[in-house]
Design a protein that fits this description.
- The strands form four sheets. Strands 3-2-10-5-6-7 form a six-stranded antiparallel beta sheet, with no helix packed on it.
- α5 (91-101) crosses α8 (229-287), α8 packs antiparallel against α12 and α9 (295-329) packs antiparallel against α11 (375-420).
- It is built from 14 helices and 15 strands.
- It has helices at 3-18, 20-40, 57-60, 81-88, 91-101, 132-135, 198-208, 229-287, 295-329, 350-366, 375-420, 425-459, 482-507, 514-520, and strands spanning 45-53, 105-109, 116-117, 124-129, 139-144, 149-153, 161-164, 169-171, 174-180, 190-195, 210-213, 219-226, 343-344, 347-348, 465-473.
- It is an alpha+beta fold and 540 residues long.
- The model is unreliable at 58-78 (pLDDT under 50).
Amino acid sequence: MSKYAEKKSSKILGKFLGKWYWFAACLVVALAASWYMLSKQPYMWRVTGSIVVEEDKSQSGGQMPQESIMQGLPFKNMGTLDRQIQILRSRNLMEKVVDSLRLDILYYHEERFKDTELYKNSPFKVALADKKEDAYGKILRVRQIDENRFTVFGEEKADTQLQSFRTPFTYQGVTIALERDSAVAASKEVILIAFVRPRDIAAWYSSQLVFQKQAQSNVLTVSMVEQTPAKMVDIIHKLVEVYNTTAQEDKNRMAARSLRFIDERLSKLSSDLFSVESREASFRSGSGVTTDVSTSAELYMSKLSTAETSKAQLTTMRNTLSSLQSFLNNPANDYKLIPNFGDLGGISFAPLIATYNKSVVERERRLLTQMPKHPEVVGLQDAMLSLRNNILGGIGVAIDGLSQQEEQISSAAAPLQRKVASLPFAAQKINEISREGSVKSELVLYMLQKREETAIGLAAHVESARVLDEPVAAGAPDSPNKKQYYMLAFVLGLALPASVIYAFDRMNDKITGKTDVKELTMVPFLGEVAQAKSERTKLI
């Protein structure tokens, strides 16, 4: 550094020291402002925990042993982990949490600089709020007088009311009743009661939720920042509970629809089986012919029975596919769940139908919070239309294949039928009726098995999510940061007067002493004359 620069620095430093009271005053003001801002801001705490979310087994590739009995049933878990995060953060789910915990009514302790929320610590609660939607946005200022009475302060002094606990009163058009909470000590301070719209408070809490996936696991770390740690812990627990309830309701609704379809089909099959058995009994009684035939005839009948059974099974599958095709072609069933019967006609429709049914449930959930023309809903409907067309295409291919198989069986059975024609007509008729009854009986048993499996799935309650690590609050508030506030105040308290002094020094173009003359000119310096600041000062 040059001597000139050193002199300039010393000169500026000297001016700074000469104005030390400026720095002291600015520091006091800046620190006082920081203290005031800190006193106005509430302390925000971060609560962190973790939850385990069960993914869709068909997508995650694994299955727990105790869930193996659920395999093949016409409903699945709720989906992939990313999808579950969106469900957990949905406003619809949070509204149920707000309603369950009554978070749309908030209680605050009125203080000079800021209001402190009294979550579960208010000396009294709202027991009744008639026309609650009219109360949203209103705030009551209440002070307890004794164990039986309290005062409600209105906006005007004339509006102040003296009321009793558990006695309804009218405030700004809303009938309200307060009850004393004996578990909390009485307080003579003013308590604020705020009514908040559930949708607004649910949207705010949903925005505060942060989920983070832990690597290669179905564990989610959940965190939340708010003034009251106890409230956040309750919200996380209640959110998991509501999530499990919603998942169970979706599963039960799908299972109930499947049960109705199975019961309708089972009723029809049982009626057909009873009709076949009645015809066989009537024919046997009228003809008096037994089923005993020669050994050679039994061989032909056995082969023909196998062919007819296979043909009947193919016909049944084709009829089932035709019924399913009619169901899909009916516009009234565009957004209904498709019954899932697994493999039909050698083609597995289960993955496509399961995906389509999930889209139906997802569309119903989205319509709770979105309009039918919302881009996400329209995109979901387009995907459902594509899936429906794929299923219809597969059904057409399967029906054609079954028809070809029936033709092949008929061609192969023709020689056998000519040989059987030589058998007595009565024995042939009895065998035909018996084969038809056997096929119907097998279908009835199959539908009974599916009904029992679906009923087991309906009765089973498997938690889709559970708390792994209990949510706990951090050891210190997340905000505001006192050190940052005071450090910034200290820097501003020093920088502001220093900037002003330096700016005035840069704008000063006057000669203030012999140092300026020596620095700016080469003229020999002879001396200087002092300036008198008053008339009494005499120049000697």
